[in-house]
Automatic annotation (TrEMBL):
Domain of life (superkingdom): Eukaryota
Topology of this chain in the membrane: Single-pass membrane protein
Subcellular location, record wording: Cell membrane
Name the UniProt record assigns to this protein: Uncharacterized protein
One Gene Ontology CC term in the entry: plasma membrane
Lineage: Eukaryota, Viridiplantae, Streptophyta, Embryophyta, Tracheophyta
Length: 52
């Protein structure tokens, strides 16, 4: 069943439910991206220190 089959009210209700979940997932992805970047920077920095 595609979105085109749903009545307008049902589509609006479904979008309202998905909005908080989407916001939550977006925030989690952003946090994971930042953590990944920090770990990468620390690893690279550590390797430079060992090379000296």
């Amino acid at each position: 069943m595609g979105m085109g089959c749903l009545p307008f009210r049902a589509m609006r209700r479904r979008c309202k439910v998905r909005a908080p979940v989407g916001r939550f997932l977006k925030e989690k992805r952003a946090r994971l991206y930042i953590i990944r970047r920090c770990v990468t920077i620390l690893i690279c920095w550590r390797h430079e220190e060992e090379d000296k």
